[in-house]
Amino acid sequence: MGFLKRLFGKKDSKKEPEQQPEKKTETKKAPETKKADPESKQEKKPSPTKKTATKYHVSLNRDEKSEFYKMWRVRKEQSEKTIKYFKTQEEAIDYAEDLADDTQSSVVIHKKDGSIRKQDYKKKS
Asked: What is the Cα–Cα distance from 30 to 32, expressed in whole angstroms?
């Protein structure tokens, strides 16, 4: 029985000091969660600026390792993923125009060397 008293005596003595610090930490956590709410609202405000109209770029694939080397491609602005490849620049422009019309955006057409041929190109209706 002495063993059980020691066991229970230690648990009781540990619970009391542990409960007091927990209450202190709980009061400290409450103001932190309140601070997090305004920060999360501030983070949400910049997100609408990211929803600007996407431009589509028509450019020549100059990657010699690619199976689509020297083919014209259509990409979204700031994307490394190609939407579709074409044999001619004209086909790529037509496809990009259709995408731009659907999303109310514009097309940027590049020359063979990569420089911009036409900026904010829109199909005349």
From this structure: 5
Which residue has 């014209």 as its token pair?
A: 72
Examine the pLDDT at 108 and tell me if it is beyond 50.
yes
Report in angstroms the alpha-carbon separations of 90 from 96, 98, 102, 114, 122: 10, 13, 19, 16, 14
Instruction: Please check whether residues 74 and 117 belong to one and the same domain.
Output: yes
Same domain, 58 and 113: yes
Q: Are residues 59 and 84 in the same domain?
A: yes
Q: Which residues of 42-81 are buried (b: 16+ CB within 10 A; e: fewer)?
A: eeeeeeeeeeeeebbbbbbbeeeeeeeeebbbbbbeeeee
Q: Which two tokens stand for residue 104?
A: 């109310």
Structural domain including 70 reads 54-121
Question: Distance between CA atoms of 95 and 63, rounded to whole angstroms?
Answer: 22
* pTM score, whole prediction: 0.56
